[in-house]
């Protein structure tokens, strides 16, 4: 026989006796009583139950005299939060923390008090919740970002923290009508934008739906009321339809001997409103308001039940989803199908096992619900949202900037997943729009860092290719390869973006440290010290004193700040020279005289040599694009590293007049290691094939073309074309210009000045 639950509970009979009317005092006393929890705590043993009761008494005494906005005793709130946690069958420590969660915030209770009375684990949970209570979510994104970051740090210690917090937020939303109306918008927006998505990603679907509906109720009260009335009317009109479907289902499953449970379900008001808004529909056009959930004994029964449903009613094309074979990112598993029911009304059906239903409704909480039978829940942490949580925590540890972290979070909160396969047939879920690089980083950061090529379904593809459902992806790696900064332009997942940025930051820091070391050594020569002293032996104390003077944690940090222009090398060098002198190391008089005599010479012995191997720490100004052979100067921007200009560049001249202290001597190394970009302007007769002829002339000079721009074309007459080309030095540039001038279509060829 199949057990069923009617989707529409019967109305109360008028013959039933009226309940006793309680006074306000009696009602408050009943709400504040531990008896409200007793029936929900039957899964605890006697010892745990006694501990929870002790926490209740302590919390009741601590909150004595405090009232909620409704006028009820404050203890009614911790009791309601604990009741929700008990629904998830959380352990005694979590229930005790739920009862005490406001004690440190709103009373004189301290953390040491809780440790002494209830032990360290409970005190740590309450402390984590107290820190969350102190967070202020404002509309300013940087505050929201930092607040969310702190929340995840609290969650990292114990996932029970966020479960209790979600229970707390749910009760606050249920009673929001008691709060001042001025707070409704802020609290409801915060719930919809932050807490509901967290509930979704942790698999707490029932809580997720409730938080959405409650937020909608207080953000759009008029629309909520109108839609609520419309659904109630539709429910009345379609009562016969629902009863007919229910009867058909019962008869079908009973005829085939399947023991199932059938639940009627209704779309939430928020879900209906969202669908109407997104698809520009009227309420009458939303046909799948009602649905049924069929709970079956085992996995194979899911597919058997699906077959029976498809025989009973005709399926709607493209409305079947198998979330069992390909579960959602938050662990949700179920079969979804939409069928054409009686009177041509579309009805959605969800088919799942008891274990799947539990995970679908409670997500990570299924760990406690099924702790005595983990196999039944199939509660793999990767499938219950914990992997997502750990991923965000890892990113939080790697990311110092709160706004950058919030950017990652927003990407990952609502992914529309695609499912792909590794060559060994492992299924992986990624957000829609994810690329091969996202896939590589999802496997392992080392795979992402070293990716050089990829194959999708055995065909070679670019690394920026978007992956599609069912793709089999193979990533080819190479030792010594590194992330490309250009990848940031197309990666979709927070993990990939975070790992690439982390590598670039490390690279930039290494380059800046190397440049800072060069610059400090150069500045020391001007003080008569011929080399940078070691940090070991007798000179350790000298470096310690210098770091106390500069406020840096270590030598590396100081050199990075010099390389980034945050500290002036000459000032640090003077201080270091004095400390060395005090330690008994005197300056070299000959070196001191020579350096000061040549101080005005740009090619003095102490100048920094530029060979092109520098990456992020040295930039070549695009206003003048200097190349080896040009006279150059270096400008140390604040926090930007070293920018190299042509000595006669108008921008450099202007900067030198305004900020001469930040200029330093630089020179080209004897053997630069790469080509450098510069700009040329070529004036040509606008004839057919002119671009190909100019390109051939440049190619003959072994010059690479990086960019071409042209003025508005005219059918006849002269035309200016601007090329950005890569050359080894000024000699190769002159050779390229000569080739161009000897080309018959070229009227004039010259180097561009000041970026024009």
Structure characterization notes:
It is a single chain. With 756 residues, the protein is an alpha+beta fold. It has five domains: 24-219, Hypothetical protein af1432; 226-379, Beta Polymerase, domain 2 (2-Layer Sandwich), CATH 3.30.460.10; 386-498, Beta-grasp domain (Ubiquitin-like (UB roll)); 503-668, no CATH class; 676-751, ACT domain (Alpha-Beta Plaits, 2-Layer Sandwich). It has a six-stranded mixed β-sheet. A four-stranded mixed β-sheet has the order 13-15-14-16. Strands 19-20-18-21 form a four-stranded antiparallel β-sheet, covered by helices on one side. The chain starts with a strand and ends in a 5-residue tail after the last strand. Mean pLDDT is 78; it is low at 1-22, 369-385 and 599-606.
Summarize the structure.
The protein is an alpha+beta fold and 756 residues long. Helix content is 48%, strand content 16%.
Spell out the key features of this protein.
single chain, about 750 residues, alpha+beta, Hypothetical protein af1432, Beta Polymerase, domain 2, Ubiquitin-like (UB roll), 5 domains, four-stranded mixed beta sheet
- What is the mean pLDDT? 78
**Main sheet record:** 6 strands, mixed
Count of individual beta strands:
21
Distance between termini? 85 Å
Gyration radius over CA: 35 Å
Number of domains: 5
Anisotropy-based shape? extended
Q: What is the CATH T-level topology of the largest domain?
A: Hypothetical protein af1432
Instruction: Output the CATH class name of the largest domain.
Output: Mainly Alpha
Coarse structural class = alpha+beta
CATH architecture of the largest domain: Orthogonal Bundle
- What is the count of DSSP helices, taking H or I runs of 4+ residues? 31
CATH superfamily of the largest domain: Hypothetical protein af1432
Q: State the helicity in percent bands.
A: 40-55%
Strand order of the largest sheet: 1-2-3-6-5-4
Roughly what fraction of the amino acids lie in strands? 15-25%
| Low-pLDDT regions | 1-22, 369-385, 599-606
């Amino acid at each position: 026989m199949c057990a069923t639950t009617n989707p529409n509970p019967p109305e109360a009979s008028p013959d039933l006796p009226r309940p006793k009317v309680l006074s306000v005092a009696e009602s408050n006393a009943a709400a504040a009583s531990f008896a409200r929890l007793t029936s929900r705590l039957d899964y605890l043993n006697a010892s745990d139950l006694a501990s929870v009761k002790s926490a209740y008494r302590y919390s009741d005494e601590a909150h004595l005299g405090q009232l909620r906005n409704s006028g009820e005793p404050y203890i009614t709130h911790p009791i309601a939060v604990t009741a929700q946690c008990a629904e998830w069958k959380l352990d005694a420590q979590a229930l005790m923390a739920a009862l005490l969660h406001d004690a440190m915030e709103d009373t004189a209770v301290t953390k040491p008090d809780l440790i002494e009375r209830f032990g360290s684990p409970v005190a740590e949970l309450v402390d984590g919740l107290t820190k969350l209570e102190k967070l202020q979510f404002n509309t300013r994104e940087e505050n929201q970002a930092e607040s969310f970051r702190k929340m995840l740090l609290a969650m990292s210690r114990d996932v029970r923290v966020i479960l209790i917090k979600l229970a707390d937020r749910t009760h606050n939303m249920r009673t929001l009508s008691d709060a001042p109306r001025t707070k409704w918008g802020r609290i409801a927006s915060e719930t919809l934008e932050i807490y509901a998505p967290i509930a979704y990603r942790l698999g707490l679907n029932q809580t997720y739906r409730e938080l959405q509906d409650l937020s909608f109720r207080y953000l759009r009260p008029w629309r909520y009321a109108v839609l609520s009335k419309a659904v109630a009317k539709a429910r009345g009109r379609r009562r016969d339809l629902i009863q007919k479907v229910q009867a058909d289902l019962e008869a079908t499953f009973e005829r085939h001997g399947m023991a199932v449970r059938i639940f009627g379900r209704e779309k939430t008001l928020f879900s209906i409103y969202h669908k109407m808004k997104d698809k520009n529909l009227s309420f009458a056009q939303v046909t799948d308001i009602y649905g049924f959930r069929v709970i079956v004994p085992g996995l194979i029964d899911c597919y058997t039940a699906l077959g029976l449903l498809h025989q009973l009613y005709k399926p709607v094309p493209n409305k079947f989803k198998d979330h069992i074979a390909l579960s959602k990112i938050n662990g949700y598993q179920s079969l979804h199908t939409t069928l054409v029911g009686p009177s041509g009304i579309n009805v959605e059906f969800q088919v799942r096992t008891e274990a799947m239903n539990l995970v679908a409704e409670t997500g990570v909480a299924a760990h406690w619900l099924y702790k005595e039978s983990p196999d039944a829940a199939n509660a793999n942490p990767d499938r219950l949202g914990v992997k997502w949580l750990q991923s965000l925590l890892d990113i939080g540890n790697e990311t110092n900037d709160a706004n950058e972290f919030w950017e990652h979070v927003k990407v990952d909160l609502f992914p529309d997943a695609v499912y792909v396969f590794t060559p060994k047939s492992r299924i992986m879920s990624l957000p829609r729009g994810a690329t091969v690089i996202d896939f590589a980083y999802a496997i392992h950061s080392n795979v992402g860092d070293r990716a050089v090529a990829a194959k999708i379904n055995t065909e070679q593809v670019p690394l920026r290719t978007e992956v599609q459902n069912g793709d089999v992806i193979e990533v080819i790696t190479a030792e010594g390869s590194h992330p490309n900064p250009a990848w940031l332009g197309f990666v979709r997942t927070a993990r990939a973006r975070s790992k690439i940025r982390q590598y670039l930051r490390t690279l930039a820091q290494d380059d800046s440290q190397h440049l800072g070391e060069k610059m400090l050594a150069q500045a020391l020569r001007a003080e008569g010290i011929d080399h940078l002293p070691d940090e070991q032996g007798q000179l350790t104390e000298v470096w310690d004193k210098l770091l106390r003077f500069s406020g840096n944690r270590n030598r590396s940090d100081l050199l990075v700040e010099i390389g980034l222009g945050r500290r002036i090398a000459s000032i640090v060098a003077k201080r270091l020279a004095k400390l060395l002198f005090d330690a008994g190391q005197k300056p070299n008089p000959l070196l001191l005289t020579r350096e000061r005599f040549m101080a005005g010479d740009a090619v003095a012995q102490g100048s920094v040599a530029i060979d092109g191997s520098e990456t992020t720490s040295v930039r070549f100004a695009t206003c003048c694009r200097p190349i080896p052979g040009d006279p150059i100067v270096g400008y140390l921007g604040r926090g930007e590293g070293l920018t190299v200009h042509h000595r006669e560049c108008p921008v450099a001249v202007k900067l030198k007049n305004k900020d001469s202290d930040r200029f330093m001597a630089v020179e080209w190394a004897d053997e630069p290691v790469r080509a450098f970009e510069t700009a040329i302007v070529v004036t040509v007769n606008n004839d057919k094939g002119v671009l190909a002829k100019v390109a051939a002339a440049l190619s003959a000079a072994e010059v690479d073309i990086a960019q071409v721009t042209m003025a508005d074309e005219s059918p006849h007459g002269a035309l200016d074309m601007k090329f950005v080309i890569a050359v080894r030095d000024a000699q190769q540039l002159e050779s390229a210009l000569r080739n161009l001038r000897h080309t018959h279509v070229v009227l004039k060829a010259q180097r561009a000045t000041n970026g024009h």
